[in-house]
Amino acid sequence: MSTPFTTLIDPSRSHRAKRAPRKLQWTAAGVTLSFVAVISGCGGGDSAPAVPPTAQATAESRCAAFLGRSFEGATITRATLVPASAAAPEYCIVRGEMPQDLDFDVRMPTEWNHRTVFRGGGGFDGYLDIGYISDPITSPIGSPDLATRGYATIATNHGHGMALSDGSFALDTEMLAEYAYLAVPRVLAPAKAILRERYGDSFATAKLVFEGCSGGGRQGLIQAQRFPDLFDGVIARAPANAFNPQFLWYQKIGKQLAKPGAALSPAKIKTIGDAVYAKCDGLDGLNDKIISRPDACQFDPVELACTGAETDSCLTPAQVESARTFYAPTSIANGRYVWPGFPAGGESAANWLSLSSLGDGYIKYMVAQNGSIDPLQLDPTQYVSRIDQLVSMIDAVNPDLSRFNAHGGKLILWTGQTDWKITPNNATNYYQSVVQANGGQAAADEFVEYYTAPGVNHCEGGTGADKVDLAGPMFEWLEKGVKPSTSTIVATQRTVAAGATPASRPLCKYPQYPKYVGGDANLASSFVCTTP
Ligand SMILES: [Ca+2]
């Protein structure tokens, strides 16, 4: 099963051509343009169209008219009308570049549904071209089928073109600031100018939503907290908004597993997972490999302590300590950086043994600013001033959303409950802090809803129903005032074994869970959202 953190990296694309070569490419592309377009493109600003769309303009000429021009500091380097295919109806893709290495694309369907989604990134971002996250046709992250349903979309590489797990961009202060919080507002200005030109007056009244998962969820919360007027709605899935504590937890896990005898083999992790499911799967009323009541699951790895010779079916004291470290809350530097614990469920080698590359990049390039150090040897308490600086730049934990609310903004939070990259308790804690800071439950219910997906890993995957459209419910909320929770939102399993039927489940608003009430266990209609 792929995850956004572990399988995205195509080594052959690592460190694409950097700034100087790209400028040459850019010039070369300009030469192929019409002379008028090049002149206009050099003028800067939002000048009159070089090739003004006319009443007779076709979708093709409207798309081509963007090439080589300048919008709000961005230069358009590509404008291509993509014909309708099985994957998507006809759309225009416009690619823009801004200094230093900030790229973005805007996809505009010829038959637009009057809705626009800015798709967030993930990991350490970069790689607009890889498509996995930014491309609504290929991405398994976020609301599905945006391209087939007529949504316009915006995406960016967040300021650099390095690999998703390569943190070395962070040695460049400007690139780090773009990654942290600047990229989205910077590219939104030209992107909106492009959309306005393509769709005319109807764009002015259309709603604009940001949706992202993981790093993209953090980016969404950055907008709601720091740029509350930019978006009408934000969908933040599994947000990496407590970014620094999260990565300090990765380091804590790495240090624990490196202790003598403390490593956990895939077989041992399977033993732990099997014990958890034997104990807790049925607590929600159905043995379906989905733990829908993690709150009711009490599990301590010491229950698996070896009583005789060590086998794959038991844990030594050092291994018990390692397993406990996974579940335990984290407190670094006397409580300066705290991170909640993890609920039981989803224990697997894929989930537990894949933290190191991003964690190492964080310690090396963001904290130490030195790529040659050993990440496990760094003592965070010796870097408090640097980490504080990173917290103020990157973390998005401010619960005060009063400006976003006053602007009419709506927020949907979502998390998988077997997410071992970002504990689901992180989203729960943030939601509860928002409720407390914004006038209590009734007041918060008017502009924020929080959903939890049992059995779903980080953004996708797991045994649960990981595929769910939240863009549709968000736009209904914004356009018609219909709260998402007043309808049944159905999630389905994205990937199933050959011959199996994908399970569907109602997506329940926190603190509810889908309770089995009888019938086909693969059908959402056999479940009712119930408060524990
Ligand atoms: Ca169950």
Main attributes of the structure:
single chain, 33% helix, two-stranded antiparallel ribbon, 2 domains, Rossmann fold, twelve-stranded mixed beta sheet, 532 residues, 16 strands, alpha/beta, disordered N terminus, binds calcium ion
What is the compact description of this entry?
The chain has two domains: 11-242 and 397-424 and 453-486 and 506-515, Rossmann fold, CATH 3.40.50; 245-393, no CATH class. It is 33% helix and 16% strand. The protein has 16 helices and 16 strands.
Descriptive report:
It is a single chain. The chain is α/β, with parallel strands linked by helices. It has 2 domains: 11-242 and 397-424 and 453-486 and 506-515, Rossmann fold, CATH 3.40.50; 245-393, no CATH class. Helices cover 33% and strands 16% of the residues. It contains 16 helices and 16 strands. It has helices at 19-31, 35-42, 59-64, 173-199, 201-205, 215-226, 243-257, 266-280, 317-327, 349-352, 356-368, 384-394, 402-406, 424-437, 441-445, 471-480, and strands at residues 70-71, 74-82, 91-98, 102-109, 115-119, 152-156, 207-213, 233-237, 330-332, 337-339, 410-416, 448-453, 489-492, 504-509, 513-516, 527-530. The strands form 3 sheets. Strands 1-2-3-4-6-5-7-8-11-12-14-13 form a 12-stranded mixed beta sheet, sandwiched between helices. A two-stranded antiparallel sheet has the order 9-10. A two-stranded antiparallel sheet has the order 15-16. Helix 7 (243-257) runs antiparallel to helix 9 and helix 7 (243-257) packs across helix 11. It is globular. Mean pLDDT is 90; it is low at 1-49. Calcium ion (CA) is lined by residues 281, 284, 286-288, 290-292. Calcium ion binds next to loops.
